Amino acid sequence: MDREINMTKQQERIYRTFLYLLLFAAVAALSVIVYFAYWDKIPSTIKIRAGVEQELDFKVPVSGEIYRVDDDAAQAASLPDALDQRQTKAESVSDSVKSIHVDFTHTVKVKANELDTYQMNLKLFGVLPYKNVDIEVIQDKLLIPSGIPIGIYVKTNGVLVVGIGEFEDGDGRKVSPSKYVLQKGDYILRVNGEEMENKKQFIRAVEASEGEDLILTIKRNDEVTEVMVKPECNQSQNWKLGIWIRDNAQGIGTMTYEDTDGSFGALGHGINDVDTSMLMNLDEGTLYKTEIVGITRGTNGAPGELTGYIEYDSENVIGEITENTTAGIFGVCDEEIAEAACYEPIPIALKQEIELGPAQIICSVTGVPEFYDVEIVEVNLERDNVNRGIVIQVADEKLLTLTGGIVQGMSGSPIIQNGKLVGAVTHVLVQDSTRGYGIFIEEMLGH
Question: Does the annotation mark 396 as catalytic?
Answer without folding.
Answer: yes
